[in-house]
Amino acid sequence: MAYEVTATRKRPATFSELEGQDFVVSTINNALSTERIAHAYLFSGPRGVGKTSAARILAKSLNCEEGQSDTPCGVCSNCVSISRGNSLDVIEIDGASNTSVNDIRTIKEEVLFAPNSSKYKVYIIDEVHMLSNSAFNALLKTIEEPPPYIVFIFATTEIQKVPATIRSRCQQFNFRLISVEKIKEILIKTSEELDLPAEEDALFWIAKESTGSLRDAYTLFDQVVSFSGEKITMEKIRTKLGIAGIDSVNEIAEEMAGGNTQKVLELTDEALMGGVSIDQLIIDFTSYFRSVLFLKHNIVKEALLGSNPSIFSKKVISTYSISQVEQAIELLFKLYKDIRFSLNQRFELELVFSRLSSLSTYISPNEILKKIEGIKSDLKSGSFSVEQNTGELKKEEKLSENLSTDTITSIIHSLRKNKLALSSTLEKATSWKLIGSTLKLTFDSTYSGNAVKGDILPIKEKVSEILNMNIDIEVSIVNPSGGSPNEVDENIELVKRVFRGEVVNGGK
Ligand SMILES: [Zn+2]
Predict the structure, then answer these.
(1) Residue 148 Cα, ligand 1 centroid: separation in angstroms?
(2) CA 177/CA 165 separation, integer angstroms
(3) Does the N terminus or the C terminus of the chain have fewer Cβ atoms within 10 A?
């Protein structure tokens, strides 16, 4: 038996077979059972979700010889001729190719003639938004005062292009995209009907690719069936359609997270050699990092992630921060645009993948601003804490504090009476830092430093007295030609690390 196109074979014959449009179906059924028939219906929504099928079912429901109902018999001559598209009383017009006012004039003349063999004369106008303005105006008069046996069913993918004057005269139904889960369910049933075993992953992939259009899902399903042989598998889809597959994307992303650029570029080469296109690789990585972003936000719904959450590499999820994942997606979006005009698409891809491999060290502008603010306030308070491994700067509890000018003056002042020379030398200290019970004095002159070291006891006593605690004193001397850095140098080092910069103009 010849293989019948699935979209045709599965075209719904009754409203109960119309998938994924429960609200529309229940409203129409209700209208039919209470015999409240409008003279103009407007079906809007994305392509491939059942608008035209619903219009044909409605036409049958109105004209079935068994009487008006939401379950047309499907076997009477009216039902059969409508299904075959040769009913004289159900006229299908493609709005895209009958856009002129003359076409509408023909309709206006025709509607004056009663239906041939049915209760209603039904006009189904598809892509109605394509009609010209004058055609809409001509149509308006007809739908305002139609003969009682006339029913218009308009269908459109672009409701906003249908004039408000038309819309307001129609009973409107908004058809929705069909969920990935629903499409997968339908595809499972479809493959069972064909007696063709299928991996659930593979059907899920088809459902995901069809982005809510059942017709697209059926078309892709047919394509997959054509090369699948005895069983539909994800592996066959990958090989035949050149999909990188979550496993290889995962593997490359893990190497990226580990900063292993060489391995990333080798694996990318393998994927390209395996027949995956550059476009497809970018699409696969974009949707992969999108899923990682969702997982970072604790969103684990399979339909949103496109795969089971357990599939995604833990290493990738834990390595990257949210802003780094956002940066990855941004780089990939830009790459997708850029390769349209690229001298060499493959080089562009490799460049971005190499950048993605150092993504874990990326700091967003916002984070840099925060760090600058942190450094500013730390410089003011003189307190620092540096985490060596990550380069992160953290404000912690104050480990040390600079003595206030008042305290320093009173120390120097009280020493002046008996130790005038020592107090003058002490004035040359560049920093007075109290860490726990140790006062660290810094001098930039060896002479001053040594002078203070040589006469430390009176200073120790005075400071202990003024601070009301037992104080030890350490003296360090900054050697201008290098040597052990003082606090200022540490600060400069820190700023250099955060900004990955160098001190220009000597620094001293
Ligand atoms: Zn019938």
Answers:
(1) 21
(2) 26
(3) N
Q: How far is the CA of 79 from the centre of ligand 1 (A)?
A: 4
Among 19-23, 76-80, 374-378, 485-489, where is mean pLDDT lowest? Answer: 485-489
Residues 99, 153, single domain; the answer is yes
**Residue 316's pLDDT is what?**
93
**91 has pLDDT over 80:** yes
Pair 106, 251 in one domain:
no
Task: Answer whether residue 494 is part of any domain.
Answer: no
Are 145 and 234 in a shared domain?
Answer: no
**pTM of the full structure:** 0.59
- The proportion of the chain whose per-residue pLDDT surpasses 70, expressed as a percent, equals 90
Q: How far is CA 229 from the centre of its chain?
A: 36
Q: Using CA of residue 249, residue 251, residue 257, residue 262, what is the dihedral sign? A: negative
Domain that holds residue 429: 400-477
Distance 77 CA to ligand 1 centre (A): 7
pLDDT (0 to 100) of residue 301: 85
* Residue written as token pair 């003969």: 147
CA 94 / ligand 1 centre spacing (Å): 25
Cα–Cα separations (whole angstroms), residue 261 to 76, 151, 270, 455: 69, 65, 14, 59
Rounded distance from Cα 149 to ligand 1 centre (Å)? 18
- Least confident span in 2-11, 139-148, 197-206: 2-11
Domain-embedded: residue 497: no
Strand partners for 122 = 90, 151
Please give the distance, rounded to the nearest whole angstrom, from the Cα atom of residue 100 to the centre of ligand 1.
34
76 CA to middle of ligand 1, Å?
4
Q: Cα separations (Å) of 346 from 121, 255, 276, 280, 338? A: 58, 19, 12, 12, 12
Q: What is the mean pLDDT of residues 394-400?
A: 45
Please determine, for residue 94, whether its predicted confidence score (pLDDT) is greater than 90. no
Cα 450 to middle of ligand 1, angstroms: 111
Q: How many angstroms separate the alpha carbon of residue 60 from the centre of ligand 1?
A: 7
Per-chain residues with Cβ under 5 A from ion ligand 1: 64, 72-73, 76, 79
